[in-house]
What does this fold into?
Amino acid sequence: MSKPDLKRSFLALWVVAAGGGSPSLVQAESALVRAPAEFASAVARLQPGDTLTLADGEWRDFQIVFTGKGAEGRPITLTAQTPGKVILTGRSNLSLAGEHLVVSNLVFRDGWSPTGEVLSFRKSRTERANYSRVTGVVIDGFSKPDRAESDNWVALYGHHNRFDHNQLTGKTNAGTTLVVIRDAVQGLENRHAIDHNYFGRRPVLGSNGGETIRVGTSHDSTSDSFTTVSDNWFEHCAGEVEIVSNKSGGNIYRGNVFFESQGALVLRHGDGNLVEGNVFLGNGLPNTGGVRVINRRNTVSDNYMEGLAGANFGSALTIMYGVPNSPVNRYVQVDGAVIENNTLVDTREMSFGAGMDAERSAAPINSRFARNLIVNRDGRDPILVKGDMSGVTFTGNVQAPMATKALPGVEGHKVVLERGKGQLLRPKGLKGVGVRADLTYVAREDTGVSWYPKTTPIAALDSGSVVNAAPGEDTLTRAIAAARPGDRVALQAGVYIVNQVIGVSRAVTVEGPANGRAEIQFARPNLFEMASGGALRLSHVTISGALAPDVAGAAVIRAGQGAAQYQLVVEDSTFQDLTVNRSFNVFAAAPGSLADRIRLERVTVDKVTGSVIAAHTETADMGTYNAEVVEVIDSTFRDVTGPVLDLYRGGTDESTFGPRLTLTGSTFERSGKDGGAIRLYGVQRTQARGNRFVDSGAPTFYRRVGAPELVWGGNTLEKTPDLVTNVPPLEVAQ
Ligand code: CA
It folds into this structure.
């Protein structure tokens, strides 16, 4: 990374360089500015080779418009006095327009952009940046507070721009982290370089629009962008099913690392792209995928994939079915794909012919799948053939420990793996198959910047110390207020009365005694309200709704409007007497809220007029929903008006993995007689095993989109109607 020239930066005066001599003889100048007004007057005078430096400190509500015309080899630079010490906060953003501009070493945090972009390579629709570079810029959690309000953090316009060594983490609202926006009027050949960036944590958005990178749109996707995305690090990017959404032609994705990221690099639209030498490390985490192939003449070679647990559209390697004569925004038939010399170790699934349905009926043609190495050390065969693969030539592939029966051109071999360069697994004594012997990948520390942390530690549940609380009125409220993130509030046996709604925006545990009973009663409509980033664990407590007022919206735990990235864990606890109004819930989600996880284990619920988990407010059918993962284990529900579990995810969008439900070992008695004991609408994956339904409403499961999986095994129904579903359930033996 180039260091800004600060040799005269401490002269606050601007030295007027013009006035004598030809511009090419003008010496480069450097000015330090301390306020937006100084910046504005200085920027107007910039000449090729000049550097404009922002003074260290906080720049609040500063919408930087950086324009100028540098020259090749003599750019105009905007930088920080000290990297990491110039902080843009509040309602700030940056747009640049002109040529040969360089922006470096700025930090955006503690705020959000008032426009649709944080960092834009244009000032207006007609004034763009070309031949310009943004390097060493940090955007940390600079998200609009309303998750549903969309923006792009970085928008690349124009052509020949470079975006490198930047660090982008913690985008929580809708919209891409980085997008290449193309324009037929100004030219579609962008030739941008996006390299050595660190794309950090992008939590699950819970709808489409959570891509980390998108290049183009379907509209212009038949033309080439010639953008290169190389040597970037994608870590915990989990926004949606597309980590990268390629929507143009002629692009190169090379040498990138996808670390524990949910989703896949998706060749969604556009032809003639190259995906080469990338490394995908899933570590077995759910939904970690590889590459999805659609369209014409796309090449996927020399990629290394290990421990990817994704399936279907997000499998390690997915070859899709297309739509005959597809419109640009649907699925162009795979034609001329070359997939060779990839190594896949311990992947859960390779999905061949994914998406085949009445509309997507065109099998891949003129394609080649050659010299790939597929190893599953547990002996599983990850290859799943869902359609006609006769249009793909399979040659020279090796699979261990034995060849799949589903495809030709795959030879079974015993393969011994050893860790080689970059800790990648290599087959001992096997040449010409899998990735090339010298494949390695960019080091994490060589991406982003060195002067700003890549991850911010968040206190986990039970990572702190113990705060004691004695029975009484408001003692629990005070103890929680005194707790630091990660602390555990320990209750003695006795009754605790709470007179206000307790907000939870960090990790806190409330735990009663293992022997004896700690009972919590609350006098407001809610006991707890979950906020973004909150985590609550309740253990060994009894919660009674007897004191709660008779008002609508009563729930023991409520997720606040728009609350996201929160989790709720309840263990060994009892809820009772939630009967003061006609729909008193144990948990209720507010619109726009999204739980990372809700887990109930060994929970007993007695006499509730509403639901136990009411997560069904997203009824606009836009593919949004209220809970990513719901787990209900070994619990008992009696006399719940219900449905006990009420989860909704509407619409036909295919961009999300959730909601997912695990329901095991639980009993439902006299519950959900009208709406069903459980009502699952559009839940993507359900595993229900070993549950008992007695004198209750029918469990219901409706498929809306994608390939929702319903595992239904070992459940008993007594005086309860049969499962109602439009999906043939996958029965499993206990
Ligand atoms: Ca998408």
The CA atoms of residues 459 and 703 lie 37 Å apart.
